[in-house]
Design goal:
By secondary structure, this protein is of the alpha+beta class. The protein has 5 helices and 17 strands.
């Protein structure tokens, strides 16, 4: 028994010393700022866009190991104006401690501070992200053109982490081809386990602003989400959605929601749905054990 205790004590001491050594290496010898030029060059090479990271990269080890960056911008596609496509006031990448003991760097979670994303489609139908999809196709060795859905799936796969946090974000959508424009402001997003085919919690709050009509809606969403990054098929459970406007309020819940075939024939299946809405003195509540929506070509069908 004494030998076992001595062995456990020695093993614990070795783990502790390894952790201390890793912390000392990070704080004394590791210069995260050395990688800034490499990051900027890699982004330029793979996207054809200019990226600018202002200020030094900083490493903190307490209470968690994190690499922090200051203001960042990613240039817009040629022909889409002078404003950057993406800009943010800062970002933080939290690292897993155990892989560092083996000399590996693995990301635990990512936080984006005040990001602003400008997505646009011009009057001939070209998108602000179309060149990125084309470069991704070229990097993969050609083949069939990459659609927006596949581009989204690849982007999610590249961002697969244990957690994603967005503080005070904004999304601007402008479609000159269809004549639509809106802003999603005050975005607070938190996702757990943003990984391929793994379930994680989702919490989203945002304000949708229609400046042309002078109207806005506050939206809050919570759910458990499990997504396939290759097919974009998504399983959602415990969904709660709340929407509030100046004279309108609605709340919807569903025990399960299945999204299938988003790249070909989209199908939406929701179980145990309850919707309650009110406007002024008028209110209505609807419930259904099953809702199904599907699209085939230009045909829409809904079953209740």
């Amino acid at each position: 028994m004494k030998r076992v205790l001595k062995f456990l004590a020695a093993a614990s001491a070795l783990v502790f010393l390894a952790a201390v050594a890793a912390i000392v290496w990070l704080t004394v010898f590791f210069d995260a700022d050395v990688y800034r030029d490499e990051i900027e060059e890699a982004v330029r090479r793979h996207t054809g866009r200019e990226i600018d990271i202002e200020g030094p990269l900083a490493v903190k080890v307490f209470p968690r190991i994190v690499v922090e960056a200051g203001r960042m911008t990613l240039a817009a596609r040629d022909g889409f104006g002078p404003d950057p496509m993406v800009e943010m006031e800062g970002a933080a990448v939290f690292l897993q401690a155990r892989p560092l003991l083996r000399g590996k760097i693995e990301i635990d979670r990512i936080r984006f501070d005040s990001p602003r994303v400008r997505l646009a489609v011009n009057d001939v139908g070209e998108s602000a992200w179309g060149d990125l999809a084309a470069r991704l196709q070229h990097a993969a060795g050609g083949g069939a053109p990459i659609g927006d859905e596949q581009f989204l799936g690849v982007g999610l796969a590249a961002l697969a982490v244990q957690g994603l946090v967005v503080d005070d974000g904004e999304l601007q959508w402008s479609d000159a081809f269809r004549g639509t424009y809106f802003i999603a402001a005050d975005i607070d997003l938190e996702m757990e386990r943003l990984r391929h085919r793994e379930a994680g919690g989702l919490s989203l709050k945002a304000r949708i602003v229609d400046e042309a009509r002078g109207a806005s809606l506050d939206i809050a969403v919570t759910a458990m989400v499990r997504a396939d990054f290759e097919t974009l098929d998504t399983d959602i459970t415990m969904l709660e959605v709340e929407i509030a406007g100046s004279a309108f309020h609605a709340r919807a819940t569903a025990k399960s929601v299945d999204l299938r075939g988003l790249r070909a024939a989209p199908e939406f299946i929701a179980g145990d749905v309850v919707v309650a809405a009110s406007r002024g003195d008028t209110s209505v509540e609807l419930s259904a054990p099953l809702l199904r929506y599907r699209r085939s070509g230009n045909t829409l069908a809904a079953d209740v």
